[in-house]
Model the fold of this input.
Amino acid sequence: MKLSQKNLDDNLKEKELLIEKLKELLVVEGSINDKYNEFKKLQNSWFKIGIVPRSQNLIIWNNFQHHIKNFYDYLHLNRKFKEIDLEHNLKEKEKIIISAKRLVNSNDQYKAFRDFERLKKRWKFELGPVKKEHKETLEKEIKNLEDILNNKRKEFELNKDTILNANFNTKENLIKEIEKLYQTESKSIKEWQEKIKTFDSIKKNIELTGPIPRKLKKSFWNNYKKIVREFYATKNIFFKKIKKLYSENLKKQDSLINEIIEISSKNDLEKERQNVISIQKKWKLIKPVPYKANEKNWKNFKNSCDIYFQKISQKKNLKTKENKESEIIQEKLIKDVENFSGELVDLENIFEKYLSNININSGKEKIFFDKIKTQFIKLGLNEEESQNKLSEMKSKFMSNDQKQSEVFKLNLKLDKLKKDLTQQENNLLFFNDKSKENKLLKTVHLKIKKQQLEIEKLITEKKDLLK
Done:
């Protein structure tokens, strides 16, 4: 707004009055500190007063600067205040130079020019002097930056239409990059975080790109706002889906934790080992899950698994203890058989006690059965009768599980014997008619016969056991 002549004259009178007050500071009584504070107030008041008539502007400014210099000279007894002010002015002017350098690289020449005018005004009218050794360098540097900006502005004015259209094309291409961002599907949070970083960078580039033709401004910014809304809408849809997926995955984790807890309450834990391992594998596949909730659930899941394996370990320890106790009982019964001197009925009682022992050691079981057979022979039975009696007692006193275990062992022996028999029969093919008197051939025949008898014997034993 243009000021009237009266306003300009009033501003001049106010500035003249401030100069008079500045003069009085040199003669009135008071401490240096108080005078300095009053001096700074007068300086600040000066810069708040508006412009004066053009014909008086330079005169009044030089007059003001003259009395400022006089006041600084007056402060020679307390140079610290002047040093502080000079240092302050130096730092502020250095800041202005840094800001001006940024403006040199700006793509928006209109804005750069306006901002530099504000910086120049602050430099000239709001900041005081600096030390002599800095003054020339600073003035030269700010003048050089002003020249560069003026040249860039002139160049801009000469090529204005081309530059504005180039800026428009640049911004249009940047908008297309935003479109590609939300049109390209991303399935992970990490990918979306990268997209958001890229989006913010593109937005900044659009803002830093210089002005565009006035006639295109409205349509461009409407399109820009629309594309930005589309990006945010796509982002929000993804994160809503992620939130839902988080909820589902947290429920899956809770379900697996409950499965482990339920398994841990069962009796036969060892049978569930593979199931627990399978559940642990399933846990690893549940993604994504919020970090804090996942950390909490993982602790609960791991603790539940630890409890399960601790229970297995405790049961094993208990089993080991039971096995040791059982082994002591078995060894005692084996010794009872060794030292046996009673009737057949008493031997049957020992046999029944041995089989009633839950944890039978397979190695000791063979020893026990062999010693029982030995006692049968001592009681007057022959080898075949002893084997038959042993089979009869097994059938009579063994539990179903023990019988199944015994049958399994007999089947293993049968399989091995049958394989050996097949091998021996195959070996006969290597002999011709002239080899009938061959000792090796006779050995093979004897071995085959022995194996056949052993197979028949095991088959009979199996049948007797399952009666």
The radius of gyration is 53 Å. Residues 163-241 form one domain. The chain has five domains: 5-158, 163-241, 246-319, 340-397, 401-467. The chain has a mean pLDDT of 82.
